[in-house]
Amino acid sequence: xxxxxxxxxxxxxxxxxxxxxxxxxxxxxxxxxxxxxxxxxxxxxxxxxxxxxxxxxxxxxxxxxxxxxxxxxxxxxxxxxxxxxxxxxxxxxxxxxxxxxxxxxxxxxxxxxxxxxxxxxxxxxxxxxxxxxxxxxxxxxxxxxxxxxxxxxxxxxxxxxxxxxxxxxxxxxxxxxxxxxxxxxxxxxxxxxxxxxxxxxxxxxxxxxxxxxxxxxxxxxxxxxxxxxxxxxxxxxxxxxxxxxxxxxxxxxxxxxxxxxxxxxxxxxxxxxxxxxxxxxxxxxxxxxxxxxxxxxxxxxxxxxxxxxxxxxxxxxxxxxxxxxxxxxxxxxxxxxxxxxxxxxxxxxxxxxxxxxxxxxxxxxxxxxxxxxxxxxxxxxxx
Length: 383
Fold this sequence. Notes:
Layout: H1 2-8, H2 11-45, H3 51-79, H4 86-123, H5 127-157, H6 161-172, H7 174-184, H8 186-201, E1 209-212, E2 215-222, E3 226-231, E4 236-240, H9 243-246, E5 250-251, E6 259-267, H10 273-285, E7 290-302, E8 307-315, H11 318-339, E9 349-351, E10 367-369
């Protein structure tokens, strides 16, 4: 009997009983919590906006962890207070509380910035101004999250007495430590500062159309240290943020998303330009990709065998510009094939014609005679 009593009164037995009771209580709480969250989710789905859905989805797990921590704190104070494990368990609980609060702050930051993004996109008049603000929000959100993580790690480490002593001793030589850390992390800190500068100055924004390293693409993501460019063929080009501050590149939508497109045609001198202009106007008026701003056709160059025509047209952005150029080019070529097939570029050579010289002998006379658009042999006409 004495052995049984000693076993029942030992710290290990109290801990096992306490954890069993804690497990049963947690299971009951989880069941109730899931029932409540399902009711809240069902009610949130009936509302017109998505803000409440995002809040519930983002915060339901961190708040459950916080609830479990509160219960564990209560059980540790009652079941383990007189045991030798209480001090260590109390230290673990402090660290878990710090991590849980940091997690809730990170999730709360995501909810806050989601609300700001949603309000910005719903109230904005044009997508052009929205992209600049979204770029700032994305970068500052990541900065706040990184700051929260750093603070959480620092506060958690400072709960250890030995580390706190080391930290206090390091503070006395903060100048030397700062210089050492600055040299060791010079490149990383420089890239983070470049990311902040990128968010403020905004040489690029989300969804900007750029030409970098000879490739055309769209700014897909802007991180604190690197930028992801979605290329036209769905490849991803990853560049450090310092690239956009130290190297020249083309931003096709830095001021306005509207862009001018050009199409070149090389035709014979017999091509009637007014007919082409009328057909161009007809093609553009029925095309939803044209923004109705710019449309003209001009002769931009003249060569021996052909003249160069340039079509200038406008579109809403670079994506629709490319599609508009391709569509107009195809329809204009089809129009020339059907109406003026003889006006494609031809090569002319001299051909003999009957004539007489002063002496009465038959001598060929040089004339310019057009041939078909299929290229003849490249011999020059005789003098």
